[in-house]
């Protein structure tokens, strides 16, 4: 099995989000970057596939040199090799075009991406990669088992789940459930040491464009101060929710 | 030029999501000075009702291809109808199925795709929309100047008001592209529960509840409020509640009208998935719990005492109103 795991390089979930003073950009100052949490589930799942079926796990990121520590971390977790496509990931279409081009050369059996990146919350890249390659796309995937050339999957649907199957090659938008939280691999010392010498290939971007343009950022409107209600007087809360908030 | 909207159904039934999408499309079309047309796949309830939400026409596609949801076939049908009607804008509600269709449709239509949208367009030339980023810790205005654009908005973010009237319903005809095959083997819907993304009210509880055996009072409160139930991440990690209830930055992001957080501390990752709720109530026995900073209303108290009382008070209120 040749598995490609798409790794998005995102601010740590505890980050305070600020924008530059002219609101034109996300302010990276003091922000710690990590592997997108959704991609961590996919990476561990990919390791399991390799351990059971043999093969290779490649990780890819479309980004500038500053994302390399994130790719090295993925190598330390166990990926065999990494590819960084050297470009500014300007929108979902641009990123998907880059990854699809890599996939066309390498014929992966399974491409695992995350359901969404926690930075721009696009939820676009995996579906676009699938469509560019004309391969089945299973989004919100919470279960994946392989039987020969066939994949049995579970995906979340509104109000439940669905069991599906498809022949490889496939593209997955994954999340927790691909593996559980407790199963997530973290780098150990040996992994970190060996990651230093694993191949990290830097590829130039193919010619592609963005189809969307980013304008000004803004922060959510500040919340007005909380109104406290006495625990002995829940009736007051009911009145407030009815008369003031008008939600019941 | 026209605006097309995908009218998703759930086993033939339409939900608030579908009406919200229709109205979103109608209002966008109005800004563009054109009409909004619905596309419905498979056997469904009456489609003429979409006139009340501003659509001029609904195109219904039947047949074996649309018996079950298939992301590629849906995208391919939307593409075909878009071409037949020279639609340059396609509206899709960001449900789980919607999010699975939109990126595929964008490739098929060479369209600019803007997802996670929280408002109606601020401008239609070029199409400019506000979208949520960094798990609701920020917003950004996006625009696209492609000939065709697809807008995928967050369900329940723009709301819907019912008007009156009905619209024309026609049977459409499409020739689908050859697309990859996935086979659905089993559909498992949780019965009798309101799916979280579409719940207008949500009652959520965290580790403060001590154990899964104490969720009875949470479900009761949810029932009197006609609300969905949710939980914090550790609660689902420990298996107290199903994963489908986990809300937050790494769970489901929700934006109900009312979110009641009980025994949840209010960690930044939790808030990221719930902070766009219109009204937030926090109930916590620790006056210093961070949730109180993010809430509109707060009660400092023991959940085991406060929640049953609140349920009772709401029940009485409902009986008299
Ligand atoms: C990468 C990452 C991603 C994460 N993603 C998410 C996410 O998506 N969603 C999420 O929820 N968390 C997420 N977390 C976890 C988050 O940081 C918190 O640990 C978690 O939200 C805490 O859950 P809790 O509030 O239920 O529990 P606790 O923090 O233990 O809080 C329990 C609260 O209950 C109160 N309490 C105790 N007893 C009572 C009582 N009798 N009556 C009333 N109140 C009581 C306490 O005062 C306390 O405030 C993530 C963490 C990481 C590192
Ligand atoms: N710049 C990128 N490089 C590699 N993979 C990416 C990149 N951006 C997004 N992805 C993948 O696509 C998934 C969904 O991202 P998005 O569509 O941006 O929300 C992520 O979880 C990643 O797996």
In short:
Chain A has 248 residues and is an alpha/beta fold. Helix content of chain A is 28%, strand content 31%. In chain A, α2 packs across α5 and α3 packs across α4.
What key phrases describe this protein's structure?
heterodimer; A: alpha/beta; Rossmann fold; two-stranded antiparallel ribbon; 6 helices; B: 321 residues; alpha/beta; 2 domains; seven-stranded parallel sheet; five-stranded parallel sheet; binds flavin-adenine dinucleotide; binds adenosine monophosphate
What does this structure look like?
The complex is a heterodimer of chains A (248) and B (321). Chain A is an alpha/beta fold. Helices cover 28% and strands 31% of the residues of chain A. Chain A has one domain (2-215): 3-Layer(aba) Sandwich (Rossmann fold). Chain A is built from six helices and 13 strands. In chain A, strands 9-8-7-10-6-1-4-5-11 form a nine-stranded mixed sheet, with helices on both faces. A two-stranded antiparallel ribbon of chain A has the order 2-3. In chain A, strand 8 (150-157) and strand 9 (160-167) form a beta hairpin. The relative contact order of chain A is 0.17. By secondary structure, chain B is an alpha/beta fold. Helix content of chain B is 27%, strand content 26%. Chain B has eight helices and 16 strands. Chain B is elongated and about 60 Å long. The relative contact order of chain B is 0.11. The model of chain B has no long low-confidence stretch (mean pLDDT 96). Classes of the chains: A alpha/beta (248), B alpha/beta (321). The interface between A and B is large, with 81 and 96 residues. Strand 12 (213-218) of chain A pairs antiparallel with strand 8 (138-144) of chain B. The complex binds flavin-adenine dinucleotide (FAD) and adenosine monophosphate.
How large is the share of residues in beta strands of chain A?
25-35%
Strand content of chain B: 25-35%
Q: Strand order across the biggest sheet of chain B?
A: 5-9-4-1-2-3-10
Q: Write down how many β-strands of chain A occur, each being a DSSP E stretch of 2 or more residues.
A: 13
Annotated CATH homologous superfamily of chain A: HUPs
Count of β-strands of chain B? 16
Broad CATH class of the largest domain in chain B: Alpha Beta
Which blocks of ≥5 consecutive residues of chain B have pLDDT under 50? none
Q: Show unreliable segments of chain A.
A: none
């Amino acid at each position: 099995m040749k598995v490609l795991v798409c790794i998005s390089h995102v601010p740590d979930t505890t980050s305070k989000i600020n924008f530059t003073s002219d609101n034109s950009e996300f302010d990276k100052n003091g922000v710690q970057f990590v592997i997108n949490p959704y991609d961590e589930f996919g990476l561990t799942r990919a390791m399991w596939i390799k351990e059971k079926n043999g093969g290779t796990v490649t990780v890819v990121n479309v980004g500038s040199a500053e994302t390399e520590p994130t790719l090295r971390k993925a190598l330390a977790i166990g990926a065999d090799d990494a590819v960084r496509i050297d470009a500014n990931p300007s929108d979902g279409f641009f990123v998907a075009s880059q990854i699809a081009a890599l996939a066309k050369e390498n014929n992966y059996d399974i491409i695992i991406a995350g359901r969404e990146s926690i930075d721009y919350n696009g939820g676009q890249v995996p579906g676009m990669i699938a469509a560019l390659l004309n391969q089945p796309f299973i989004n919100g995937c919470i279960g994946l088992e392989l039987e020969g050339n066939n994949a049995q999957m579970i995906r979340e649907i509104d109000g439940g789940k669905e069991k599906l199957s498809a022949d490889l090659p496939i593209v997955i938008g994954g999340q927790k459930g691909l593996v559980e939280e407790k199963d997530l691999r973290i780098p150990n010392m040996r992994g970190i040491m060996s990651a230093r010498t694993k191949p990290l290939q830097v590829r130039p971007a193919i010619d592609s464009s963005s189809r969307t343009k980013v304008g000004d950022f803004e922060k959510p409107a500040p919340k007005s101060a909380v109104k406290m209600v006495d625990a002995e007087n829940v009736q007051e809360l009911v009145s407030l929710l009815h008369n003031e908030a008008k939600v019941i | 030029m026209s605006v097309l909207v995908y009218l998703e159904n759930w086993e033939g039934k339409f939900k608030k999501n579908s009406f919200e999408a229709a109205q979103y499309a109608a209002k966008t079309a109005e800004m563009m000075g054109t009409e909004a047309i619905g596309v419905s796949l498979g056997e469904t309830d009456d489609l003429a009702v979409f006139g009340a939400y501003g659509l001029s026409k609904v195109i219904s596609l039947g047949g074996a291809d649309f018996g079950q949801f298939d992301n590629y076939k849906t995208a391919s049908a939307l593409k075909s109808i878009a071409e037949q009607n020279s639609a340059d804008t396609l509206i899709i509600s960001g449900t789980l199925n919607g999010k699975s269709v939109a990126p595929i449709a964008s490739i098929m239509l060479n369209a600019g795709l803007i997802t996670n949208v929280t408002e109606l367009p601020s401008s239609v030339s070029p199409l400019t929309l506000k979208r949520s980023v960094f798990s609701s810790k920020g917003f950004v205005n996006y625009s696209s100047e492609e000939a065709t654009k697809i807008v995928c908005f967050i369900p329940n973010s723009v709301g819907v008001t019912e008007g009156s009237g009905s619209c024309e319903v026609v049977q459409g005809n499409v020739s689908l592209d050859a697309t990859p095959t996935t086979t659905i083997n089993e559909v498992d819907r949780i019965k009798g529960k309101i799916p979280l993304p579409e719940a207008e009210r949500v009652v959520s509880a965290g580790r403060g509840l001590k154990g899964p055996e104490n969720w009875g009072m949470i479900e009761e409160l949810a029932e009197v409020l006609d609300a969905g139930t949710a939980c914090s991440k550790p609660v689902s990690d420990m298996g107290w509640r199903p994963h489908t209830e986990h809300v937050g930055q790494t769970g489901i992001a929700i934006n109900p009208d009312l979110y009641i957080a009980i025994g949840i501390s209010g960690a930044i990752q939790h808030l990221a998935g719930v902070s766009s709720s219109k009204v937030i109530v926090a109930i916590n026995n620790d006056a210093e719990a961070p949730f109180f900073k993010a809430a509109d209303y707060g009660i400092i108290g023991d959940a085991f005492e406060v929640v049953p009382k609140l349920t009772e008070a709401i029940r009485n209120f409902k009986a008299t109103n």
